[in-house]
Amino acid sequence: MIVRPSENWLRLLFVWNGSVLQAIIPQLVFMAAVSTLAVFTQGRIFGEKIPLNTAPFTLFGLALAIFLAFRNNASYGRFSEARHLWGCLLISARALTSQMLCYVPEQENRLQIAQTIIAFIYALKHELRGTDPMPDIVRLLGQEQAELLRVKQYKPTALLNEIRYELARTKRQALIDGTTLWMLDAQINELGAAVGGCERIASTPIPFSYSVLLHRTVYAYCIMLPFGLVDSTEFFTPLLCVFISYTLIALEAIASEVAEPFSVAPNALALNAMSRNIERSILELCGRPLPEAVVPIRLYYLT
User: Are 303 and 2 in contact (CB under 8 A)?
Assistant: First the structure.
């Protein structure tokens, strides 16, 4: 995720780090080459004049803008829901830890349960990103428990089950009553619902046919555009076409990044920082030393 302070209007025009421009330069160079070719050939291909003018591009551009808006809204909807789910994880993890510390009698397993909640958060992060969770699990739970968890396919769910088992064992020992157990279990259910929501987003991408259609339409529009403008704009055609292409191609690129909120793309969620923030919050409730917060790297890039 790109995290940077608000810039004034002039500096914002020349922002490079955090802009999608650096990812689409090859496409813009290609469009500049096509536009330059259209100027030097006066809109002809193999000696034949392409009978295009600005009128059809006005109508076609309107339809394309509507389709791009739909694609961006769908992508941002996924991003927004993913951020909401991780916000719910933070709230429920804090609530579960606080309730456990306040209502469960003083015992050694309270800190162990808190460590398991943190391990659950990291296991979910790694599951969503397809990375290895074992180093974090070993750090939080120890080698022995990590080895037992290694064979599990759904590690976040297994860790939630372990938390529920420990709280149920406390109830069987008559250390808490049924009402307290029900209250704690409700927070575990909230964590489980957030896991299910994240898994749904990760396993159900935007239909591929939408992406293909939008991609083809954007490039077809950009390639044909200079042949429709060359008669009226002449030597300014490359400048205008590159600018219009930048707008359309950049919107498509941003939509593709935002549609995958759990990836490591610059515009995806900063799961490393969010996981560390939850860890710090839980450890503070437990009165334990806090690890360092995750700070932006590579000029405003927060992972």
Answer: no
Residue 232 has a pLDDT of 82
Amino acid code (one letter) for 207: P
The two tokens of residue 11 are: 């500096």
Question: What separation in angstroms does the CA of 93 have from each of 10, 65, 178, 192, 240?
Answer: 43, 42, 21, 11, 52
Nearest alpha carbon to residue 173 among 105, 112, 117 = 105
88 vs 190: CA distance, rounded Å: 8
Ranges of residues in the chain with a pLDDT under 70 are 1-10, 12, 14, 18, 107-108, 297-302
Using CA atoms, how far residue 209 sits from 62, 71, 127, 256, 257, in Å, is 21, 12, 26, 13, 17
| 291 vs 269: CA distance, rounded Å | 21
- Cβ distance 138 to 119 under 8 Å? no
Token pair in block for residue 228:
């429709």
How many other C-beta atoms can be found within 10 angstroms of the C-beta atom of residue 196?
11
Residue 78 to residue 198: CA distance in whole angstroms: 10
d(CA 42, CA 60): 22
Asked if 93 and 121 count as a contact pair (C-beta separation under 8 A), the reply is yes
Residues sharing a CB contact under 8 Å with residue 302, sequence separation 6 or more, in sequence order: 1, 2, 3, 270, 272, 273, 294, 295, 296
89 closest CA partner among 192, 3, 183, 9: 192
pTM of the model: 0.88
Q: What is the DSSP letter of 7?
A: -
Structure tokens at 57: 């591009």
> Which of 4, 15, 10 minimizes the C-alpha distance to 250?
15
Give one word for 207, left, alpha or beta, with left for phi > 0 and alpha for psi -120 to 50: beta
Find residue 274's DSSP bridge partners.
none
Helix axes 155-172, 109-129, angle to 10 degrees: 160
